[in-house]
User: Fold these one by one.
Assistant:
Number 1:
Amino acid sequence: MPLTPEQRDEIDQQRSNPVQTRRATVPALEEILYEAFPALDHGFVRVIDYMGDDGAVVQAARVSYGRGTKKVSEDAGLIRYLMRHWHSTPFEMCEIKYHVKLPIFVARQWIRHRTANVNEYSARYSILDKEFYIPEPEHLSAQSEINRQGRGDVLQGDEAARVLDLLREDSERAYRGYAEMLNQDDQGAALDPNRSGLARELARMNLSLNYYTQWYWKVDLHNLMHFLRLRADSHAQYEIRVYADIMIDILQRWVPMTSEAFRDYRLGGTHLSATGLAIVKRMLAGEIVVQGDSGLSKREWRELMEQLGRSPDA
Amino acid sequence: MPLTPEQRDEIDQQRSNPVQTRRATVPALEEILYEAFPALDHGFVRVIDYMGDDGAVVQAARVSYGRGTKKVSEDAGLIRYLMRHWHSTPFEMCEIKYHVKLPIFVARQWIRHRTANVNEYSARYSILDKEFYIPEPEHLSAQSEINRQGRGDVLQGDEAARVLDLLREDSERAYRGYAEMLNQDDQGAALDPNRSGLARELARMNLSLNYYTQWYWKVDLHNLMHFLRLRADSHAQYEIRVYADIMIDILQRWVPMTSEAFRDYRLGGTHLSATGLAIVKRMLAGEIVVQGDSGLSKREWRELMEQLGRSPDA
Amino acid sequence: MPLTPEQRDEIDQQRSNPVQTRRATVPALEEILYEAFPALDHGFVRVIDYMGDDGAVVQAARVSYGRGTKKVSEDAGLIRYLMRHWHSTPFEMCEIKYHVKLPIFVARQWIRHRTANVNEYSARYSILDKEFYIPEPEHLSAQSEINRQGRGDVLQGDEAARVLDLLREDSERAYRGYAEMLNQDDQGAALDPNRSGLARELARMNLSLNYYTQWYWKVDLHNLMHFLRLRADSHAQYEIRVYADIMIDILQRWVPMTSEAFRDYRLGGTHLSATGLAIVKRMLAGEIVVQGDSGLSKREWRELMEQLGRSPDA
Amino acid sequence: MPLTPEQRDEIDQQRSNPVQTRRATVPALEEILYEAFPALDHGFVRVIDYMGDDGAVVQAARVSYGRGTKKVSEDAGLIRYLMRHWHSTPFEMCEIKYHVKLPIFVARQWIRHRTANVNEYSARYSILDKEFYIPEPEHLSAQSEINRQGRGDVLQGDEAARVLDLLREDSERAYRGYAEMLNQDDQGAALDPNRSGLARELARMNLSLNYYTQWYWKVDLHNLMHFLRLRADSHAQYEIRVYADIMIDILQRWVPMTSEAFRDYRLGGTHLSATGLAIVKRMLAGEIVVQGDSGLSKREWRELMEQLGRSPDA
């Protein structure tokens, strides 16, 4: 349960008072505005605000005075064209703002995307809640044997149980230390009224990377799609993919034409090198190509065959 | 007259159909949404869209669930605090999008601000209108004798008349060449139906830098204020200041608390070096300081005295 | 002749005094440091400074203490891997700085790449030289009939001659007006010693977009490759491609491994949409696919067949 | 001791082989290139590479062909002018690259500066060393009573001892859990040879925020000074100030003229609001101003008096 009753009240209040605007407005997105979509065990994604819609992309591409064409098919075609030819600036004309609650180790990956605006909850200023991430057993994967940056099979039995115990115990203990250093009891009252406790900016260092933080994150549509392409990818860590997947669903509500083009050209698309393209052309001409005469290393060959949905040994 | 009747119609249509939204909305800005504020002889500034308000700044600074405090005075105090201590991220949470028509030489200064999104009207793709900037006589200044990057007195009589003639004639002639190369007559019809004319992307090079272009320009509130501080400054070129001044008026409608803090801390504020501050302290202690024992060069001394509203020789 | 004798002297002086450094150094790039590579009729590209080499990319990818592996083949393989999987940050660790002289209409396209640092020669402060771009006859293309943003056949005979005359005459005339407004004769002396002339920041607006400007442009290796991919593309305007091609040659000197990977994965590579990929898979499986049952529009089908080097009608 | 003997060897090797270059070179910075300057208990700052010097700033400001003026005093004056008038682009023409080892909670503050390039050591890919930050007793400050984001007095006696014990024990325990989940003993060998251990990308979440990470961080001179101004400020957290102070010393070696101007205008300088400036002018004119008729809130008045080195009650 990521939200307290007080927080729910505040959210309900925001949702309850629609006003009039002349701005481009997206009813499907208005419907879910401010709502918290749960992510992992304590996290969430909420849309706080947005600017623009599919029409704003079209309008910017044409630098027009009004809302652009009336024909939906023309707009969709233009958006597909822009996506296919990597025109990024019209997509930069839309903006979205989220409130996200997420484990710190996920936040550390996320923040590497620099072309966004962020305001994070400050643990120098405030005290963090006791909320930490414990994976579901089915996501408790072993280290991959073949990919140093990947996951292997799911841990079983004793080993899984032991890992969960360790994570829970160490997280609990970390918070006990944090609270004691802050001179706080469970209710947030001072343990010793004559002490002010260690500075918050220092005490926070005792918490582990699975503790939750939260932030406001604002990004334009172009950079959002770049983020989603990388973070919804199968090579991304599961815990950040959960967030990316929620945001992809929201994208579909917000800008359905752009979302369709994004799925086709980015999420489902693939990139071929010059060498890879030459191989495809030879194969299309009926030639049987094998790794040895492909010009690719074994690893590159395997990756190409995977892209084409073929066995590396065929 | 910067707008055609067709363009006015498109704008009126956008303005006429308010819809419902749950987003933060600013009535004073809604009032002027899409309206064209004239700038120079053919240019304008229009607000096309916006995201957020003063409350969104407060909300982001606190990473809160709802709309933040109810007390206006607390919000204004927090915004002043953020401005005073150069906290930029909460202001980045608001965004505004303009449609601007401006001479190319102004556009070239403007674009140097990189932290914004731009879609410019493409003269590779479309034909530019015959609209060029001619200064009002009172802005026809001579080169400054003391500041290599500044303006001196206003030109008078024959000299002024000759400059205006040259600007007008050369601009007219540039467009005649442009149209002829494009194989177009005054009505946009082909001069010679058997020719397709020079490529637009080449023909445009015949136009001079006072021709008007237009773009969509989107920026967050923090970077907007940075832009306005530099471009509304008395050292900025008059022609870009005209645009900055319009945008400062719009800022006041959009985010009045932020606007007040911006005027106090940025537009009207000043910066003292360590040496300058030491001089001020000596003067406040009753000492009479002269340039010779100030540690400043003559130019630096003059600039400091100007900041303090004092004669350099006092 | 883009350089004066004085400028050549200054450049020779920079080239003549090698000193010692412990930094990563690239002899093949040192060889051409400061040299002006001619571009168009009066422009050039000069490398002024650089930081890092192929080894610095490897070193950053590994966050290592020393220079990384000794084996060249491992480094090349890692660089190919980084390029294939769109890892951008290791390439951001190298930086290059150019001095470029280019027509203003080219500079206007170039500056749209915001992730670079620029210092441009100031026509507010200084007087521009009388140097303007006139295309070679073989680049004087007609407007494309099928692509609104492209070039068609080369203009011939009278039409070509007339265009060149117009460009030359109008450019000459624009400078005459500029100089007269500035109160300057051909030697840079005052026409009328009692006048200071129009402010430079105003007079410059009389010049046309084919006049040359110059700037220092500094960019990291990742963003440089992004720029080169877009600007060396066949859809880019010829006049900017000239610059991109020179810079691609310089890239090969600077970071040969990265350059090879860039040519294979970016310049020569191609992108398939999900729909396009599905079609390729069907074709590889022996199926004959036609546009009608491809899921692609005619235009998209034509572009895909082009990518695969096949006739659209096959 | 932040470095192993192997790491020292690698560093020594880099330092031992100077080569020839024609680039701008700074002997005082070459002297310390690659050296590790210790920070906190296990961290360090090393300069890995640099581009440009004070001359490059001057050269860029003038877009010159050679090295600019020969007179040192002119260059210093120009650099002071650029700094005074907030001209940022010439300073962007210099670049520096560091290798930094730092606690994760410091890295989280640092990374908020987005205008830099970063490659961080990957705990998805590699195993982190057992190195965590424990403050020196004199930096173990209590929470400030008056500033929610600050430090108060240093903790004493039992309370201090208890905090240090908690930090050490919890950090030790976190690493034990981490290693056990990874199935690793103290020597890095498998505890159970039949298990591959939890995926590294998951196990890392058990570590606390005082664990050390490391990265390559590259930034231009303008953005570096912006970072240093904020992070060397007395309001910055002590643990990041340690790094900023080291980097300020390095700045002095690298670009001494820029460094002097930076100290005068930024580090030692101060900013007055319009209201504050009006008060200073009144005081300079001999008037006695008190908070009540100043137009400032009590907090703002106190901050202004502090800037001017005066008692708030005077």
Number 2:
Amino acid sequence: MTETENIASSTYDVVVLGAGPVGENVADRTRAAGLSTAVVESELVGGECSYWACMPSKALLRPVIAQADARRLPGLSASVQGPLDTAAVLARRDYFTSNWKDDGQIGWLDSIGADFHRGHGRLTGERTVTVTGPDGVRKVLTARHAVAVCTGTRAVLPDLPGLDEVKPWTSREATSAQAAPGRLVVVGGGVVATEMATAWQALGSQVTLLVRGKGLLNRMEPFAGELVAEALTEAGVNVRTGTSVESVTRENGTVVVVTGTGTGDRIEADEILFATGRAPRTDDIGLDTIGREPGTWLEVDDSLRVTGSDWLYAVGDVNHRALLTHQGKYQARIAGAAISARASGAPVQADPWGAHAATADHDAVPQVVFTDPEAAAVGLSLAEAEQAGHRVRAVDYDLASVSGAGLYADGYRGRARMVVDLDREILLGVTFVGPGVGELIHSATIAIAGQVPISRLWHAVPSYPTISEVWLRLLEAYRDN
Amino acid sequence: MTETENIASSTYDVVVLGAGPVGENVADRTRAAGLSTAVVESELVGGECSYWACMPSKALLRPVIAQADARRLPGLSASVQGPLDTAAVLARRDYFTSNWKDDGQIGWLDSIGADFHRGHGRLTGERTVTVTGPDGVRKVLTARHAVAVCTGTRAVLPDLPGLDEVKPWTSREATSAQAAPGRLVVVGGGVVATEMATAWQALGSQVTLLVRGKGLLNRMEPFAGELVAEALTEAGVNVRTGTSVESVTRENGTVVVVTGTGTGDRIEADEILFATGRAPRTDDIGLDTIGREPGTWLEVDDSLRVTGSDWLYAVGDVNHRALLTHQGKYQARIAGAAISARASGAPVQADPWGAHAATADHDAVPQVVFTDPEAAAVGLSLAEAEQAGHRVRAVDYDLASVSGAGLYADGYRGRARMVVDLDREILLGVTFVGPGVGELIHSATIAIAGQVPISRLWHAVPSYPTISEVWLRLLEAYRDN
């Protein structure tokens, strides 16, 4: 930028950097409060979730899960032994990503009265964002009240020589691929790795899952990863734990993975997916112009305001509190409300569970992993609760012993755990793993966020015969042991 | 009974009349408190629920629902267009009823140390039950502390001449039939009628559903019955509302139904199911010997003690508070605890939501109807809340607009409503209707029983993209309208 350059400039109450679900929700709330709001996005409005994460992954997984459910029911199972129609599943996935076009979401931004600026936005000083459009033209957006950074994360690839030439898949390619590779190596043991291994194995790939650690889904209770690993193996996935990748090359189109260090096995595949972590997209948003280090996670208080600033907010994955779409949207509602309250001089309700405090980020973050079995958890695992110094007891129950689970599927396998705070007699965490438990976790989210005492949970009667009756069994196990 | 007859007699702390799930749970609690307990049952231990209601009906319905789910998913749908394997579904149903044998449940009674008395039990005075065994031998059981009547209900048949000779189905035959009738007329519009119409239509019958009133499921929000009627019609059921039965005869094996009064249509069928209500099984339990009227519902207080008595309890359907297995079991836990507390002179916690008060019977009774779509509700409907004098607002949301619902099934149709108490800003009722909502209702049951305020429900974040995200949409709709 030179002094002679003629740059358009506009002033808004709020400038939102990044138009994923998080940015969209911040704008929704600031617009609802009557604040003029600009939204800047360099890629597709709707973000990672709409095009390369939640929506396409769940579109790929839903028929897989429904088929698995049907296969466990005599009278229906015989008809669903064959493979899924992969082309039809992919076409449905394409529909849910709007074929990677964002006209609909731009229309939505328009409908709430937010100004959309397509281009790469960078901070260029306090309360100032400079947008470089696709055509190279720049404009300067000044924020009277707040800039909200909602740029999310990108996949991290490991530091292996020559990896670029291999053209490995990240979550983006794994969710948007137009055909099932014959052989797919998945590296990682988290949500993306287990979900994509589940999906592509069912859609026709021979999947090998390479997990560096001992187990899968290691942010959940241990039995979650154990049950999912067992099911992946039964589905035909070659699950190899304790296995690191030493080198990856592509030879005549074939991916060659050498694992190691000790064994040095060689695995050939058609594609390789690295699902090995995320990094904040803060490396090229001008953090240096406001005295902050590019590429770092942005630490925030419970109103989502960046530590040490009175105008900069960081909302969603980029603040590293909980890398989940729904939690980012929750933060966005709170950040938008907090920005609006401060802009109008209204009181800020920043006490725990107040309207301007993302308290659930600490106590009640839910997650559903759409594998078969589904794994769903909210709040603290036993290990996390103990580490945090709570006096707790974990209560487990075998879901197969719940009538509703037996009716749901023959050979039902699953497990439930609740972690009880013994001092307050409330729940700190709940985990359900098993077919059909995905919609069950919200009951636990309400119990934890609502801090409903155990004595009252006895009066919340689960309908018979649903899988939810596991609640009764957990309470009984807590009472009797 | 003559004075010279030699009748065995035993004294127990507690005598439980009826060994369905309710009686079993009363005994479980009194035994846990160390009270000697006798359980009397004239039919199968495990009761209606295990053999002729919940278990077999859900075993029949689960494959139907899983097939319907699969049919709505491109990539899977083509394989499930054919009919279910009815024989396999019925065999699975037989498994879940233990082939109508109660050895397992008798073993369970034994394991908790309750004495089981097979036979017909009748009150023969205060605290006294006389059991007439299958061999005609009588014994007298005296209860030191309490007699708990848990005899449930039976199906009510309408007063139509010659109906006995028609051998109509009740819920018992409908859940235990060993083959699908070619043509089945179902009379009624409630849970049994809609569930059995759903099941048998899918299992091969041509079902005609005759409903006297305007709609189905009329104890739920009106849209529940509307959506279920629409789906039944699409599944091929001939749904005829506003239709009463004038006569039923069986001619050469064929059931002939004449509807009326005006039209007088004639419908032929192979079987007819009357699902037209329930009556308390109190007509032959000796109520007259304690100055009460046989055949009546037994009114109780919140500790499940019969009005005007200090030793007689009535638990489950027979008290007419909520004719649902899970609610009866809830009452049983509370009654058992209340009996035990009173027996030991411990304080009775009968305040609302106390350990000895079945408060949820008033405020938070949940129910799931396992039709396709599922219909699930808890608490008060809008009409009930208004009738009760609450200042309320109903908030509705189209479930098809929830991402998780769209992913769950193509062409998703469903609806959600929450009824908000405007004075206390808590929920009085929630209804979900749509595929896959059955496990979702427990979240609402916890919110209502826990009296979690709306302001706190905002912090209970639904996982994306589950159907549970309807919670967020309902809260937004409440906020914005």
